[in-house]
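In this section we turn from sequence analysis to structure. A common task in structural bioinformatics is to predict how a protein folds when a small molecule is present, because the ligand can shape the pocket around it. The inputs are simple: the amino acid sequence and a SMILES string for the ligand, here S-adenosylmethionine. Study the lines below before reading on.
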Amino acid sequence: MPEAGEISSEDRVQWIYSSTNNQELAERYDEWAREYDDDLNNTFVWLAPRMGAETLAGHVAKDAKILDAGAGTGLVGLELQRLGYADICAMDLSEGMLDEARAKGCYNDFRQMALGGRLDFDTDAYDAVISIGVFTPGHAPPSSFVDLCRITRSGGHIVFSMRPDTHVELGFKEEQDALVESGAWSLVQVTEPFHPLPKGEPDVMHQIWVYQVN
Ligand SMILES: C[S@@+](CC[C@H](N)C(=O)[O-])C[C@H]1O[C@@H](n2cnc3c(N)ncnc32)[C@H](O)[C@@H]1O
């Protein structure tokens, strides 16, 4: 099995997506962590952190306590900091990615954890959750949303990016709609599709979804 440094930036994405479980995924992100920012900023031109943070800012006060779920190396945290947010926890599966996030200086808490089941956070712990590039094939599953609703206070917001095709094909639409039906959250905004990786994967589209927890 190749290691992160032995393959091209483009092939690394396939290598990540071919992970078969959370442990393998975490190990591969650990290996990629030091080169992730260079690949995403320069080879791919990753625009979703900025789009996500700016969309969140349309709904969330600047003194909010925010969880960046699947924070990775902290690209979303940097965008939130630029917009004036200061109380942000970085949570991720990969300690290697969290180490890079620590060096950014935009978070005040760091937690290694996996989305998908019960999270080690108190009920109503956050005013808002943001999750960018995490609800994607082989990463966090649709079942993640239930506990994100639990840890977000009533009236708080959950903001995430997703590919329109993934939304339907991987069961996210079904889960998102079921949580609307059950009254757990309400949809307040979904952006038009945009190109999050104009240089690296020009055919890929994302949308930013914003729900308010009831
Ligand atoms: C494509 S990166 C996005 C990182 C960051 N949000 C950004 O926009 O640059 C996906 C991140 O999600 C994390 N991740 C994948 N599955 C996860 C899960 N089930 N729970 C928590 N983090 C997960 C990975 O470790 C990785 O850091």
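The radius of gyration is 16 Å. As an exercise, try to locate the residues that line the S-adenosylmethionine site and compare them with your own expectations.
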